[in-house]
Amino acid sequence: MEDQIIIKQLRLWAHVGVLDWEREHGQWFSLNLQLFCDLGAVSLSDDVDETINYVKVIEVIRGLADSLVCYTIENFVEQIFTAIEVAFGPIKMELELTKCEAPIPGFSGSVSVRRRRN
Question: Which class for 109: exposed (0-12), middle (13-18), buried (19 or more C-beta within 10 A)?
Fold first, then answer.
């Protein structure tokens, strides 16, 4: 089994959606992210430079969410993957991004996209 750093239920305000007001005003999203990496060295050394710093990962994601405007959750996920790879290099990842309250008449619930990047 591979080691993982797991970020769960990171709440993000982002301007993503098909409807004009979604892109104008924004809405809440929730993110779950798994970063697959070897945690053996940092486990022994306790040196944060020998691991993926999850604080910096969260800062990258939040920075993107603050500046991004797009139509689809799928594109938002792709841009998150790209931003993480630009900051940290290639990492095997799995990401689930949830639109907390999809604005669909007669529907109460959420909509999610889950993708992997190797």
Answer: exposed
Work out how many domains the chain is built from and give that number. 1
Which pTM was predicted? 0.92
Task: Tell me the pLDDT tens digit for each residue of 38-82.
Answer: 999 999 999 999 999 999 999 999 999 999 999 999 999 999 999
Q: In whole angstroms, what separates CA 95 from the centre of its chain?
A: 6
Measured between alpha carbons, how far is residue 100 from residues 11, 39, 54, 114 in Å?
Answer: 9, 32, 23, 14
Distance between CA 72 and CA 29 in Å, rounded?
12
What residues make up the domain containing 14?
4-117
CATH code at position 107: 3.30.1130.10
